[in-house]
Each structure stands twice: as structure tokens, then as C-alpha cells.
Design brief:
Elements: H1 7-19, H2 27-42, H3 49-58, H4 63-86
Helix pairs in contact: 1-2, 2-4, 3-4
């Protein structure tokens, strides 16, 4: 899973997968997922939403949870890009 990702990014996603509720969103789980999103941004990690869907499905996540997490990933990435731009980075 994610062979080309930086180790820190991969570890954050694996940490999320270990304890996340696979059926419904939970703020504690979202915090771990946000850490993954932030690290993806900081490390400029190349990961596509379809890859997230595939992994979540294999891990037994409910389809609605898969959608929720991909929305968080995509929205988080866009927010972080806009934030960097506003700061002139």
C-alpha cells in the first residue's frame, strides 16, 4: 500500500486505518485523517482519490465513509493550497 509515499505519510495513514470507525465519521478519527492530509500536503505526496477509495474498500470501510474521507482529502488539499497561496508560499 502506497509504496511511493514518504514513510511519514504512509505511517499516518496506517495509524488512521488501525483505529478508525469504518461505518460512521468520528471527530477523533477525523483528526488522525487530517494529520495524513496535512502530511500529504507538506511532503507533496502524490496520491489520487481513487487510490484512497480502493484502500478503504479493501479495509472494509462503508461506502459512505469512503466518500466522506475522499471529500475531506480533496477539500483539505484545496484549503491548504489556498492557505499557502494567501501566505505567499
Amino acid at each position: 500500500m502506497f509504496e511511493n509515499l514518504p514513510a511519514e505519510v504512509k505511517a499516518a495513514f496506517e495509524d488512521y486505518l488501525k483505529s478508525a470507525n469504518k461505518l460512521v465519521p468520528d471527530p477523533k478519527d477525523d483528526a488522525k485523517f487530517f494529520k495524513f492530509v496535512i502530511l500529504c500536503h507538506q511532503k507533496n505526496a502524490a496520491i489520487e482519490s481513487i487510490e484512497i477509495y480502493e484502500i478503504l474498500e479493501k479495509q472494509g470501510f462503508d461506502e459512505a465513509m469512503q466518500d466522506h474521507l475522499v471529500i475531506l482529502l480533496e477539500g483539505g488539499r484545496e484549503l491548504l493550497k489556498a492557505y499557502d497561496k494567501a501566505l505567499g508560499r
